[in-house]
Specification:
With 424 residues, the chain is an all-alpha fold. It is built from 18 helices and no strands.
C-alpha cells in the first residue's frame, strides 16, 4: 500500500505547471550558483566604490528596461487563439518602435544621471548597456509565443546559457582588472545568445506590411501591467538610489553587495517562475474549481521553493560571507540577513498579482502597487536616517506588513468576482 500511495503522489505531482516551475526554478538556481561564483571573484577584485558605480549604472538600466515589460507579450499569452497571429504581427512592429525610443531615452538619461550624481564615469556604461535594447525586439514575439505554448524548457535553457555566460565573462574580466566594466560589458556581449535560441525554437516570422490596427488593444491591455512593472522596479531600486544619494557610493556598494549575495538568489527564482504561474492559471479560466485549485497549488509550490532557501541563507550568512567573500564585507552581513528575510512574503504576493492578471483585472493590481509603493517610499526615507541598516529594516517591515494583506485580500476579491461572473 505505501508503494501504491507513493506512485499516486508521484503521478499527481507530474503536471505541466510543476515541470515548468522545475525547469525555470532549476535553471535559475544554476544561474545563481554561477552568479555566486562570479560574485565571489568580483568581491575579491572590485572595490566598494566599483560596486557603488555598478549599482548606479545597473539601476538606471533597469528603470529603462522596465518599459520592455509593457504587457504586450503578456497579451499574446492571454489572447484567444484566433487573434494571436494578427496581434503577433502588430506587436513585432510596435516593439521596434518602443525599443528604439527606449534606446534614445537611455542615452539621454546617462547625461542626466551624471549631472545629478556629479560623476561622469557612469555616462559611457549606461549608453553601452542601451545597445541590448536594439537586439531584444527581434525575438520578443517568439519568446511570448513559446511561453504561450508552455515550452518553458526553452526559456529556461536560454536564460541559463545567457546568464551563465554573463557570469563567467564577469569573473574573467574582473580578474583582468576591468573594474566596473566587468559587470557591464558581458551583458551586451551575451544578448545575442537569447535571440538565437528564440529564433531557432519558434517558426513565427513577421510578414506583410506594418499596420497599427491593434496597437490600441495591445497598449490598452498592457498599460496597467506596465504601471505595475514600473512601480515594482521603483520599489526594487529605490533603496539603491536613496543610499547612493543620501549616504555615499561606498555605502551603496556595501548595500548592493548584500542584496546580490543574499536575496538576489531567491528573488531571481521568483521572477523566473512568475510567467509559468500566469500560463498555468490562464489555461483554467473557464473552470472556477480548477482555476482555484491551480492558484493554491501555485502558492504552495512557490512558497515551498522560496521560504526554506531564504531561511537557510539568512541563518548561514554570518558563517559563509567572511569565508567566501572576505572579511572586508563583514559590515554587509546584518543588511544581507534582513534583506533575505524580507523575501519570504514576496512569492505569495507575486502569485496573487498573476491571479489578477489572469482574470483581466490588471487595474486592481495597479491600484494596490500605487498604494504599496507610496508606503514603501515613506518607510525608506525614514529608514535612511539610520544609515544603510535602517533602509534594510524599512524594506523588511514594509514587505512583512503589506504583502500578506494584499495576498489575502486579492485572492478573496478575485474569487468573489469569478463566482459572480462564472457561477459553478
Amino acid at each position: 500500500m505505501p508503494i501504491t500511495w507513493f506512485k499516486r503522489k508521484l503521478r499527481d505531482a507530474d503536471s505541466p505547471f510543476l515541470r515548468n516551475v522545475g525547469w525555470l526554478g532549476g535553471s535559475t538556481a544554476m544561474i545563481r550558483i554561477s552568479r555566486l561564483l562570479a560574485t565571489i571573484i568580483l568581491a575579491r577584485f572590485l572595490t566598494k566604490e566599483d560596486y557603488g558605480l555598478a549599482a548606479l549604472v545597473m539601476t538606471i538600466n533597469e528603470f529603462v528596461l522596465v518599459f520592455t515589460r509593457n504587457g504586450i507579450g503578456t497579451k499574446l499569452i492571454q489572447a484567444d487563439s484566433e487573434h494571436v497571429e494578427g496581434l503577433s504581427r502588430e506587436a513585432y512592429w510596435l516593439n521596434w518602435l518602443l525599443f528604439t525610443g527606449l534606446f534614445c531615452v537611455q542615452v539621454l538619461t546617462a547625461f542626466v544621471v551624471s549631472w545629478i550624481y556629479q560623476d561622469q564615469r557612469v555616462i559611457v556604461p549606461i549608453c553601452v548597456l542601451g545597445l541590448v535594447l536594439l537586439i531584444i525586439p527581434m525575438g520578443l514575439v517568439q519568446a511570448s509565443l513559446i511561453q504561450r505554448e508552455g515550452r518553458f524548457k526553452i526559456i529556461a535553457l536560454a536564460q541559463l546559457a545567457q546568464v551563465s555566460t554573463d557570469n563567467i565573462l564577469s569573473a574573467i574580466l574582473a580578474i583582468s582588472g576591468f573594474g566596473l566594466w566587468a559587470i557591464v560589458l558581458p551583458k551586451v556581449l551575451v544578448a545575442p545568445i537569447w535571440l538565437v535560441v528564440m529564433l531557432k525554437n519558434h517558426h513565427w516570422r513577421p510578414h506583410g506590411k506594418p499596420t497599427a490596427t491593434h496597437w490600441r488593444e495591445l497598449m490598452g491591455f498592457g498599460g496597467p501591467i506596465l504601471g505595475v512593472e514600473l512601480l515594482q522596479t521603483l520599489r526594487s531600486n529605490l533603496d539603491y538610489l536613496i543610499v547612493g544619494r543620501f549616504l555615499s557610493l561606498e555605502a551603496l556598494g556595501v548595500y548592493y553587495f548584500a542584496f546580490n549575495a543574499g536575496a538576489g538568489i531567491s528573488l531571481g527564482i521568483m521572477n523566473a517562475t512568475k510567467a509559468s504561474v500566469l500560463s498555468h492559471l490562464c489555461e483554467a479560466r473557464d473552470n472556477l474549481a480548477d482555476f482555484r485549485a491551480r492558484y493554491f497549488q501555485s502558492l504552495k509550490v512557490m512558497g515551498s521553493a522560496i521560504v526554506p532557501l531564504v531561511l537557510l541563507q539568512s541563518t548561514l550568512a554570518p558563517f559563509y560571507v567572511p569565508i567566501i567573500f572576505g572579511s572586508r564585507w563583514d559590515s554587509a552581513i546584518p543588511i544581507l540577513i534582513i534583506i533575505c528575510l524580507s523575501a519570504i512574503p514576496r512569492p505569495f504576493a507575486d502569485a496573487a498579482s498573476q491571479l489578477l492578471i489572469a482574470i483581466n483585472k490588471t487595474e486592481w493590481d495597479l491600484t494596490w502597487n500605487i498604494i504599496f509603493t507610496c508606503f514603501f517610499a515613506v518607510a525608506l526615507f525614514i529608514g535612511v536616517q539610520w544609515q544603510a541598516i535602517g533602509v534594510a529594516i524599512a524594506v523588511l517591515l514594509s514587505h512583512w506588513l503589506c504583502l500578506p494583506l494584499f495576498t489575502i485580500y486579492a485572492s478573496r476579491l478575485a474569487f468573489r468576482h469569478l463566482a459572480r461572473t462564472q457561477p459553478q
